[in-house]
Write a structure and sequence with these properties.
By secondary structure, the chain is mostly helical. The chain has one domain (about 1-440). The chain is built from 16 helices and no strands. Helix 1 runs antiparallel to helix 10.
Length: about 450
């Protein structure tokens, strides 16, 4: 028994650590933008944060597509059916490229209306327009990179993501410093410099991924012709399991963006404070997200190997790990709080808001760690993809957003109360996700 436990945790560690490092690097890239643009001014910081909501929604769609695909690929990996996995990747890539092209065209044609969704302050809108007109060209490279890396991750190829995003961190920070502040011979471009730096970084990511797919990864091969492969039964399965996940991520992402809209119409000081608080939350969640992704891979593979009893046991272990990760995340928020409040150039009003928001993030991080591991990890691994959709629609749109918007625009309550209400959804979810977990409806085979 001890040997089995040791083997399990060794397997988990081998998956979680690279993914946690990857999440940390992604957060560090975002943090670099926040820290550097925070030195330029509140309007610039607010504009990049709000304009980034477009990419945030797009990334959620890609995550939904690849998470839905991973429901199938992890179990087919348990069967060692790599040919079917290649077909699934082709389907996911085809849909993602179409979505990214649509987003690119909309943002380039309707830049100002897009920014006006998120803010009513002209200074913020004008800065955001400059950012969006450059960053829109990164959406297609992101589609290819993210879909490929997320799907090969479901077959336990996780180190490539760490390599790609490690390069991105170094390159993005260096280019940010040169282009935002105009170091050396480079011009001072401010928010446009941050957008150019990100665009160049995304293109370099794409080049590395293409080289890896062509010359290194021999387990799963991918060629442009795979985009046009037709398999009616597999596509039907993909839609069955991926559609609820895509819808789930869209509704969740739209809810998060609605939070940004509500906060954006309260004032730029609140937006600036929230952008910092959200980056801190992402940093605190790197381990939890790594555990959730490892959960989906290991349990999905185990079910694919027809070992449901072991999959159930793994579910219990991952639940315990998510509790520890949540406590660690809450502690990280409290440790970082005084540091970020002193480093950034924010108005006294924004600093006060940030102080409050960081305390809210402690309980939010703990609850999100458990919910994410169960919904994204355990449930999706077994094909239970509809529950997460129902959960987010009811608890966010029928709960936190409804209460927060009424508090903000009807009763005009203080920012503190509005923010607490907007961030209460993860607490509402906790008993519901645990009840679903105990019901064991998530233990299903999805392969043919």
């Amino acid at each position: 028994m001890k040997q089995a436990n040791k083997s399990f945790y060794k397997m988990v560690f081998a998956l979680v650590m690279p993914m946690a490092v990857q999440n940390l690097i992604n957060t560090a890239i975002t943090s670099a933008d926040v820290m550097m643009l925070g030195k330029v001014g509140e309007n610039v910081l607010s504009a990049s944060s709000l304009a980034g909501q477009v990419q945030f929604i797009l990334s959620l769609i890609f995550f939904g597509i690849t998470s839905g695909a991973a429901v199938l690929t992890a179990q087919y990996w348990g069967k060692q059916d790599t040919q079917t996995i290649e077909k699934i990747m082709g389907i996911a890539m085809r849909i993602s490229l179409i979505v990214s092209l649509i987003f690119t065209v909309i943002v380039l044609l309707f830049t100002r209306p897009v920014m006006q969704i998120f803010s009513n302050e002209e200074a913020v809108i004008d800065e955001g327009i400059q950012y969006l007109r450059i960053i829109a060209f990164s959406y297609i490279p992101i589609a290819i990179t993210m879909v490929y890396l997320n799907i090969v991750r479901s077959i336990e190829r996780v180190l490539i993501s760490t390599v790609v995003y490690s390069n991105s961190l170094v390159l993005n920070v260096a280019l940010n410093a040169l282009l935002i502040f105009g170091l050396g011979p480079f011009p001072t471009l401010g928010i446009k410099g941050a957008a150019i730096a990100t665009l160049i970084t995304r293109i370099v990511e794409l080049i590395i991924v293409i080289a890896y797919a062509k010359y290194i990864n021999k387990v799963i091969t991918f060629e442009p012709k795979d985009l046009f492969v037709r398999d009616a039964l597999l596509f039907k399965d993909f839609l069955k399991y991926a559609s609820p996940v895509i819808a789930n991520e869209l509704f969740w992402g739209a809810a998060c963006s609605m939070n940004a809209v509500i906060i954006g119409h309260i004032g730029s000081s609140v937006v600036a404070a929230n952008s910092v608080a959200q980056v801190t939350r992402q940093l605190a969640m790197v381990m939890a997200f790594g555990i959730a992704n490892a959960t989906a891979i290991i349990i999905g593979k185990t079910i694919g190997e027809n070992n449901e009893k072991l999959a159930e046991e793994y579910g219990k272990r991952f639940l315990k790990l998510s509790i520890y990760a949540g406590l660690l995340g809450a502690a990280i928020v409290l440790i970082i709080r005084p540091i970020v409040m002193n480093v950034l150039t924010l108005s006294p009003e924004a600093v006060n808001y940030l102080s409050m928001m960081m305390f809210v993030m402690t309980y939010f991080t703990f609850a999100q760690s458990i919910n994410t591991t169960l919904v994204v990890g355990v449930f999706r691994a077994g094909g239970d993809t509809k529950f997460g959709l129902i959960l987010d629609v009811t608890t966010m749109w029928g709960g936190s957003i409804l209460l927060g918007s009424i508090a903000a625009f009807v009763f005009k309550w203080p920012v503190t109360i509005v923010y607490i209400l907007l961030m209460c959804d993860e607490i509402i979810k906790l008993p519901l996700t645990y009840y679903r977990y105990k019901g064991k409806k998530w233990l299903c085979h999805v392969t043919r």
